[in-house]
Amino acid sequence: MRILLAEDDEVLSNGISKALRQCGFTVDHVASGSDADVAIASAPFDLAILDLGLPQMDGLQVLKRLRANGKRMPVLIVTARDGLGDRVSGLDLGADDYMTKPFDLPELEARVRALIRRSNYGAETEIVYGPVRMDTASRCITINGEAIEFSSRELAVFELLLQRPGRVVSKEQLLDHMYGFDQEVSQNAIEVLMHRLRKKIEQYGLSVRTIRGLGYLLENKE
């Protein structure tokens, strides 16, 4: 899952980025409203965390342009503005949640998980595919009731495949969700991750088939 963080406070943005990356999310950080506007137009994100008091373009302007351009990703406003009018304006313009500073990082993480879960899975709290169960709140995965440990990138790959059972997931889709703007990606990065993922799931009758020229397909052989 890929998150855009638009926050001009360096200490706060570093703390949020570190916490979310430890939860297995890919985080792209920008420090101005204009950079946020460009980022939203150029890459797919699963969620945006948006400060209102951004330089160059106010956060409410970014939000208004985002919704006007048909972007439906969840938006969590994080701001020092705690007035009723600001909250109403943000929610009316299309924000999905609103937090005022200061706040505790565990609450931010929980709200991020809840917004992404509602966006991707509706009211469901689990993804079930064959012997696989994924808790969409904790992002923990069990296969045949056994908890399986995944690295953050292995989890990102597997989650995207689980979201699209019976459908091919392209390498471009995987790269977009797993890597940020500032990360160098080698040509065989996805293949290396797929190799590691296959080793973990093949014993359970699951496989990831390479569809040449198209992408990858998760299959349940049992």
Q: Average pLDDT, to the nearest integer? A: 87
Q: Treating each run of at least 4 consecutive H or I residues as one helix, how many helices?
A: 8
Give, in spatial order, the strands making up the sheet with the most strands.
2-1-3-4-5
Class based on secondary structure composition and strand pairing: alpha/beta
CATH superfamily of the largest domain: Response regulator
Q: Quick one: overall form?
A: elongated
Known CATH architecture of the largest domain: 3-Layer(aba) Sandwich
**Helix share, percent:** 40-55%
Task: Indicate the CATH class of the largest domain.
Answer: Alpha Beta
Reported for the largest beta sheet, the result is:
5 strands, parallel
Q: Which H/E pattern describes the elements?
A: EHEHEHEHEHEEEEHHHEE
- Beta-sheet strand percentage? 15-25%
Poorly predicted sequence stretches spanning 5 or more consecutive residues: none
Oligomeric state: single chain
